[in-house]
Amino acid sequence: MAQPKYLTSDSAAIGEFLDKFDVFLFDCDGKELFKQELQTGVNPCVGVLWSGDHLFEGTVETLELLRSKGKKVVFVTNNSTKSRQDYQKKLTGMGIPSNIEEIFASAYSSAIYISRILKLPAPRNKVFVLGESGIEQELRTENVPFIGGTDPSLRRDMTPADFAGLADGSMLDPDVGIVLAGLDFHVNYLKISTAYQYLRRGAVFLATNLDSTLPMSHTFFPGAGSISIPLINMTGQKPTALGKPSQAMMDAIEGKFHFDRSRTCMVGDRLDTDIQFGIEGGLGGTLAVLTGVTKKEHWESPDASFRPAYYVDKLSDLRGGSS
Amino acid sequence: MAQPKYLTSDSAAIGEFLDKFDVFLFDCDGKELFKQELQTGVNPCVGVLWSGDHLFEGTVETLELLRSKGKKVVFVTNNSTKSRQDYQKKLTGMGIPSNIEEIFASAYSSAIYISRILKLPAPRNKVFVLGESGIEQELRTENVPFIGGTDPSLRRDMTPADFAGLADGSMLDPDVGIVLAGLDFHVNYLKISTAYQYLRRGAVFLATNLDSTLPMSHTFFPGAGSISIPLINMTGQKPTALGKPSQAMMDAIEGKFHFDRSRTCMVGDRLDTDIQFGIEGGLGGTLAVLTGVTKKEHWESPDASFRPAYYVDKLSDLRGGSS
Questions:
Q1: What is the mean pLDDT of residues A25-30?
Q2: Chain A contact set for B220 (CB, 8 A)
Q3: Most CB within 10 Å of its CB: which of A16, A192, B195, B229?
Q4: 3-class state of residue A73 by DSSP
Q5: Looking at residue B44, what is its pLDDT?
Q6: For residue B33, what pLDDT band results from cuts at 50, 70 and 90?
Q7: DSSP summary character for residue A81
Q8: Which long-range contacts (CB under 8 A, 24 or more apart) does A88-96 make?
Q9: Would you say A296 is a known binding-site residue?
Q10: Region of poorest pLDDT, from A156-165, B37-46, B96-105
Q11: Is the pLDDT of residue A183 over 80?
């Protein structure tokens, strides 16, 4: 692997870098830290554009610089509970102006994958959803039929009639051909049992993303991967994941934007999600930003599986090219 | 490995077999079948003593024969929702007379393990329970302090205050030193989040058993393993399991009965749970019963990891020794 090129304070190199790409995919997710980092009590919510609730200085200006040069900016997030509209509100709340078309979250990624790539023939193209309203909104956007999700009739205890009705199939919708598992704050035994029965009957198994945890309030809570893992364990089947670093998400982004991969750059702070995602997706470049978890030593280690093409100390260093 | 000895219709061999053992451990669990068997629609509830709701002919008489010869009979089950009392009712309902002291279920196994083997010093010996009342009853029997379980205050949606209170620890009991995960029909996001926070703070991780599924109504539902798997996935930590084939269950049985392993025989229908359990436990013998999933061809295959010492076509063939 070639040595990553350091761009900070090198305006010629930055200018060259910016000229090489038309599209920049930005990682927006707080990260799962390594065990030893967790034990030192480091804030788990570090990232590329912000850390926890703190927007990094120069983030907005850097994004504006890219847009002013005609670059396409895409915010990529594994967040599965939010629709693009919900996520735009979050960005606005962080102080980042954005266009809804610039947002690519795993709920939307899932909807795109189902409608434009998987394309199961009707009527057996209905989705059983484990997840919140963000997923439902995006499925509606793509005209994908679904059941489950936030349906209040599933937010209850399992009864003996449920065991019987799931076993004999009378409680199952014969049109369900897909199970989509995202983060569901209302997960329960009835929903997992129902999803399992659909999978046993041959439904395609999808997951918005497989992150086992959700960084929040300076600690972690169960992530979308905690919803799908019992089903993986029961069926021995792995879902197609629609979040980073799964290439199904890259395919979905391409299904939507039809970009030229060779002129696209993935920007992120983690080698084993973001940089991996960009490299395996055959993108023209990857940029590591050192305001996150990854340090230079990580990719200099002989064990490093992924090495970025470029790196900067902080995202706003990219503004050094235009000065 | 030696060739298993076939006892059916060989009264001399049966007599010799019975003389070798003082204690017989009986597997009582319906089994998870192999994928190909599932697809053929075979009844998943086959076993040693019964199949589904059908008691095999001669089961009661065979157990009586053993008892009349002064043998100790122990019913071993991974069922984690039932206390021994609950389980005795189930046996009675099946038509099998039993003494409560003959029953060893994984909820009881867990209680014994905590109180007699783990023996954490008070006050940090409190258990956070993911599970039903059977576990609570058995913990009470052994005077083990616990919280969680069927507590109705945990059967609700997660609130923003819960995220904050779990993150800052104000909702956590500092005396909790153990998380015990069994089958919980009322599992939810709040309970999994709470258990995770205790594990992050160093609680010992136990599971009643790791069966991913629960055979029921001729199909499968999520088993106890479906409750612990999100926590395993989030922490990267494996719990000590108190069900077959984990040797922690054998230790708990020994902690209770103080039997002589060399004069104890495990009776079961599956090579990779029951027979493995007996062999790894260093028991004097193992008996495979062919009314379950395992066929002779399974252990005759060169890939077979475990081979029983003895086998019979059906349990009641053991009566042939006394005729």
A1: 87
A2: 196, 200, 234
A3: B195
A4: strand
A5: 57
A6: very low
A7: S
A8: A94/A49, A94/A50, A94/A53, A94/A55, A95/A55, A95/A60, A96/A49, A96/A55, A96/A59, A96/A60, A96/A63
A9: no
A10: B37-46
A11: yes
Q: Map residue A105 onto helix, strand or coil.
A: strand
Using the predicted structure, report yes or no on whether residue A40 has a pLDDT greater than 50.
no
| B241 three-state secondary structure | strand
pLDDT for residue B321: 67
Asked if B225's CB is within 8 angstroms of A233's CB, the reply is: yes
Show the tokens assigned to B296: 């002779």
CATH architecture of B5-78+246-321: 3-Layer(aba) Sandwich (3.40)
Predicted confidence at residue A323, as pLDDT, reads 46
Residue B103 Cα to chain centre, angstroms: 11
Distance, CA of B232 to CA of A226 (rounded, Å): 10
How many other C-beta atoms can be found within 10 angstroms of the C-beta atom of residue B192? 24
Using only C-alpha atoms, chain B has a radius of gyration, in whole angstroms, of: 21
Helix axes B133-141, B84-94, angle to 10 degrees: 120
Bridge partners, residue B266, by sequence? B25, B286
Residue B42 pLDDT more than 60? no
CATH superfamily, region A120-241: HAD superfamily/HAD-like (3.40.50.1000)
For residues B247 and B253, give the distance between their C-alpha atoms in angstroms, rounded to a whole number.
10
A chain contacts of residue B186, beta-carbon cutoff 8 Å: 157, 188-189
Question: Would you say the CATH fold of A120-241 matches that of A5-78+246-321?
Answer: yes
Q: Is B184 among the residues known to form the active site?
A: no
> E strands of B33-131, at which residues?
50-51, 54-55, 72-77, 103-105, 126-130
Note whether B121 contacts A: Cβ–Cβ < 8 A: no
DSSP lists the bridge partners of residue A185 as: none
Query: How many whole angstroms separate alpha carbon B147 and alpha carbon B206?
Result: 15
With b for 16 or more beta-carbon neighbours within 10 A and e for fewer, the A188-202 pattern comes to bbbbbbbbbbbbbee
B246 touches chain A (CB under 8 A): no
Measuring CA to CA, how many Å separate A305 from each of A25, A211, A271, A283, B265?
21, 19, 8, 17, 50
- C-beta neighbour count of A282 within 10 angstroms: 11
pLDDT digits (tens, 9 = 90+) for A254-311: 988 999 999 999 999 888 889 999 999 999 999 999 987 788 888 888 888 899 999 9
A186 with B189: Cβ contact below 8 A: yes
Asked if residues B223 and B212 have their Cβ atoms less than 8 Å apart, the reply is: yes
**Domain-wise residue ranges, chain B:** 5-78+246-321, 120-241
User: pLDDT tier at A232 (50, 70, 90 boundaries)?
Assistant: very high
